[in-house]
Amino acid sequence: MFIEQPPLFYRLLFPEAIWRIQRHGSGTAVYVTFDDGPVPEVTPQVLDILDRYGVKATFFMVGDNVRRHPELYQEVKRRGHTVGNHTMHHLQGMKSRSITYLRDIAEADSLIGSRLFRPPHGIMRWAQARTIKRRYNIIMYDVVTRDYSRKLSPERVFDNVRKYTRDGSIIVFHDSLKARDNVLEVLPRALEWLKEQGYEFGKLD
Predict the structure, then answer these.
(1) 8-202 maps to which CATH number?
(2) Along the chain (205 residues), what's the average pLDDT of each consecutive run of 10 residues?
(3) Would you call 121 a catalytic residue per the annotation?
(4) Catalytic pick from 104, 147, 174, 175?
(5) Which of 121, 126, 191, 197 ranks highest by number of CB atoms within 10 Å?
(6) Which of 153, 103, 158, 146 is closest to 122 using CA atoms?
(7) Does the annotation count 174 as an active-site position?
């Protein structure tokens, strides 16, 4: 559960970040997000699935992937989705010098141009988070589907969605090569299930 739904003590380590969004008023909502793209082998199919269900999502993009596939970056935006910064080279903050990490984010920003940021692996130093918060909204997550794990079957990934999703959940899928088989099978089932449960789909901006 520590991975699929971060516990309270971990969330408290980064009070600057947004982990879950609870709206006031009637209705329940979830926020579908994708990490690590865009890549031509997965992202176009993810976009088609989202179109089929009328869902808008947020794509946290690796800057180097945007550099290599600028047409996919534009296509994601053209279809009405939001984009976010996921560093230039998918750096993990705890394993990087802060000056290197912040420069990597800035390099990605020159290509992505978003005020939304998600740290790879959900890990960074406290000092990094405080600096990043001055310029970006740090978007973490409430549910990690673990679609990237080759040890998990599509059914297990789908179970993670059903077990951990709640009102306001920010749900993480991946439009990456590692996640391709799981995400392309699970995403339609997950969107259908979420609709059946009465969830609306919010878009981060």
Answers:
(1) 3.20.20.370
(2) 86 94 80 98 98 98 98 98 98 96 98 98 95 98 97 98 97 98 98 97 91
(3) no
(4) 174
(5) 191
(6) 146
(7) yes
